Amino acid sequence: MNTKIITVANHKGGVGKTATTQNVGAGLANKGFKTLVIDLDAQANLSISFGVVKAEKTIYEALRGEIGLPVYKVKEKLYIVPSNLNLSAIEIELLSQAGRDFFLKNLLEKVKDDYDYILIDCPPSIGVLTINSLAASNNVIIPMEAHPLAVQGITKLYEVVEIVKQRLNPDLSVLGILITKYDQRTILQREIKTAIEESNKSFVFTTQIRPNISIPEATYQGQDIYEYAPTSNGATDYNNLVEEIINIAQ
User: Which pLDDT tens digit goes with each residue over 198-213?
Assistant: First the structure.
């Protein structure tokens, strides 16, 4: 199969982007797919969640053109390009540079054939880094909560995806919307889930990620959910999501 490059993005924070990138990446690796995850957020939460801290080389140096992508092995079939706080300066540094929207794509061109899947965890904003990720990707996964303002908020991200598709990357499409922290026992969340499904042209994953304390606990321990709590709802939900992604990303 051709390498699938998937951006995980939402300009709203706290919706589960990093947990989704981490656990989908780990789930794909568990199923035998060679997977690279890229931490494109200066907060470096994805790096920390895999126990990769104080890496000598990061995505920051690579985007500055000083090195190629620095890839670190997490476990069998799973690799990461880490981040650190220096990345917070990259938006300003790249702003005046020609071709700034394609820096990540150019870096990936040299390594993408080595992997089955590449997942990119974006910052909670629509800036140079997120545009770089969208310009380099085949697909976008949009994690979002079943919250009253979520349906309105997602419109802006759709507009950005459409602009990138038209101007920078005609191969880009939304793979699906992932509803996170979903409690089906509440009438409000069920109604909002229905509204999301009815108001978006894109596919909404059948799998929802239920609230589960094991997910942040695993992150705190520097482990994925399958290692930390393999029988938890979190492990079940993310495993189901991985199966969906494999089926629809063929």
Answer: 776 668 899 999 999 9
